[in-house]
């Protein structure tokens, strides 16, 4: 074989190898692009699944309301085997009906929590179960809702006692989520050199929130504490004013220096909680200047009830998708195939939310018989909301002063170490 033939053959081999390598590279790139498309599709399915679970939760709220207000007249003749308390079950049929629906909702989301809690990647089978298989999950939901109606009333009462604790945990998670949002909002509108408009708009928002807070305080005093006999309302509102002043002073302290925006938003939220607590007082002793309770079926009552229902659903939904603010490690690297939110935490929040809406429908009283179209009314509900307000303000104040406390502690430790080193050197 001549040298020219050898050279030509080598050239052909080199060209073939180069073509093969390029084909392999194109295949790898095409595979990666296909995986990206698959990840995008799975991510969109996962994000849509949140709304489906939210709709399920809303339906469960409406079913619980139906059992409380109309279940006795519609369903009681067909379910004689359910043992309830009082004269022919009249005393606590309402609360037990709500608790049974809540227990069914809790079982459904508990099963979803246990089957998805370890999901980390979009390619895992748990992700497919979370985002799909809706026919199977519909059967699971129906079984979960029917099962509590075969439980004895004593077991349902025990669940009601546990539900009080679960509802309290839900309120705590909701507070942390709200405060996390306020912190993010404050950082977003913090003035910087590149965006001067943020500074002016942030100042405008701070002013608006404080004006709203002060207006709310004036409204509370004039509407619910106009007489000296309304001593409890006067105490609630006055203590709210003290909390507002404390938050503002601490925020403007030179060592804290958090500005007025976050404290203004928190002030408005605390005033809203105070108003909501006073509105939960029994209507006969609410100390209103004008009696607004004209009828159980007035459009104001119905509208307020529907708004409360949607508020419960939105609270569970927004807290469930806000799992990042509850992570202990903030340095976790996110990858393309990671799930967009924590499925386990999402379903856990909804299971606690099932306990929460049960407590609202029965006003935290397991033997209550609430009025139609009412929600979360009674002295127990009032004190739960008042304590929730005080706890929210306490968490926020601690969030403001905790960096200063930790810094002072570190400085003290450094000073002690330095003094020990100096004594050893001497």
TrEMBL record:
<feature type="transmembrane region" description="Helical">
    <location>
        <begin position="138"/>
        <end position="159"/>
    </location>
</feature>
<dbReference type="Pfam" id="PF03348">
    <property type="entry name" value="Serinc"/>
</dbReference>
<keyword id="KW-1133">Transmembrane helix</keyword>
<keyword id="KW-0472">Membrane</keyword>
<feature type="transmembrane region" description="Helical">
    <location>
        <begin position="298"/>
        <end position="321"/>
    </location>
</feature>
<dbReference type="GO" id="GO:0016020">
    <property type="term" value="C:membrane"/>
</dbReference>
<feature type="transmembrane region" description="Helical">
    <location>
        <begin position="49"/>
        <end position="67"/>
    </location>
</feature>
<feature type="transmembrane region" description="Helical">
    <location>
        <begin position="259"/>
        <end position="278"/>
    </location>
</feature>
<comment type="similarity">
    <text>Belongs to the TDE1 family.</text>
</comment>
<feature type="transmembrane region" description="Helical">
    <location>
        <begin position="97"/>
        <end position="117"/>
    </location>
</feature>
<feature type="transmembrane region" description="Helical">
    <location>
        <begin position="341"/>
        <end position="362"/>
    </location>
</feature>
<feature type="transmembrane region" description="Helical">
    <location>
        <begin position="165"/>
        <end position="189"/>
    </location>
</feature>
<dbReference type="InterPro" id="IPR005016">
    <property type="entry name" value="TDE1/TMS"/>
</dbReference>
<keyword id="KW-0812">Transmembrane</keyword>
<feature type="transmembrane region" description="Helical">
    <location>
        <begin position="234"/>
        <end position="252"/>
    </location>
</feature>
<protein>
    <recommendedName>
        <fullName>Serine incorporator</fullName>
    </recommendedName>
</protein>
<feature type="transmembrane region" description="Helical">
    <location>
        <begin position="201"/>
        <end position="222"/>
    </location>
</feature>
<feature type="transmembrane region" description="Helical">
    <location>
        <begin position="382"/>
        <end position="401"/>
    </location>
</feature>
């Amino acid at each position: 074989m001549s040298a020219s033939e050898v050279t030509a053959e080598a050239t052909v081999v080199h060209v073939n190898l180069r073509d093969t390598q390029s084909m392999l590279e194109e295949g790898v790139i095409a595979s990666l692009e296909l995986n990206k498309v698959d990840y995008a599709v799975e991510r969109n399915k996962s994000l849509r699944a949140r709304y489906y679970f939210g709709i399920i939760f809303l339906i469960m709220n409406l079913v619980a309301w139906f059992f409380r207000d109309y279940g006795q007249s519609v369903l009681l003749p067909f379910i004689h085997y359910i043992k309830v308390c009082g004269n022919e079950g009249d005393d606590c049929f309402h609360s037990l009906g709500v608790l049974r629906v809540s227990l069914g909702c809790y079982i459904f989301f508990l099963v979803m929590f246990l089957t998805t809690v370890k999901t980390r990647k979009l390619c895992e089978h748990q992700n497919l179960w979370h985002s799909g298989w809706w026919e199977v999950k519909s059967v699971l939901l129906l079984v979960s809702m029917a099962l509590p109606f075969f439980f004895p009333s004593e077991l349902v009462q025990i669940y009601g006692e546990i539900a009080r604790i679960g509802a309290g945990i839900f309120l705590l998670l909701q507070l942390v989520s709200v405060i996390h949002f306020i912190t993010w909002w404050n950082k977003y509108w913090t003035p910087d050199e590149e965006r001067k408009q943020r500074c002016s708009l942030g100042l405008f928002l701070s002013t608006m929130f404080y004006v709203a807070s002060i207006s709310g305080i004036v409204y509370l005093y004039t509407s619910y504490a106009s007489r000296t006999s309304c001593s409890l309302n006067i105490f609630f509102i006055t203590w709210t004013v003290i909390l507002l002043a404390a938050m503002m002073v601490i925020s403007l302290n030179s060592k804290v220096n958090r500005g007025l925006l976050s404290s203004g938003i928190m002030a408005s939220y605390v005033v809203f909680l105070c108003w909501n607590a006073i509105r939960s007082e029994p209507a006969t002793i609410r100390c209103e200047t004008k009696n607004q309770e004209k009828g159980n079926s007035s459009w104001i009552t119905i509208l307020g009830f529907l708004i409360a229902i949607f508020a419960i659903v939105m609270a569970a939904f927004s807290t469930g998708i806000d799992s990042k603010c509850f992570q202990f490690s903030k340095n976790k690297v996110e990858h393309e195939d990671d799930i967009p939110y924590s499925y386990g935490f999402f379903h856990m929040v909804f299971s606690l939310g099932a306990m929460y809406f049960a407590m609202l429908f029965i006003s935290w009283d397991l033997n209550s018989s609430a009025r139609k179209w009412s929600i979360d009314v009674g002295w127990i509900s009032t004190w739960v909301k008042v304590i929730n307000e005080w706890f929210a303000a306490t968490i926020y104040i601690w969030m403001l002063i905790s960096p200063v406390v930790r810094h002072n502690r570190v400085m003290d430790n450094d000073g002690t170490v330095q003094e020990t080193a100096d004594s050893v050197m001497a």
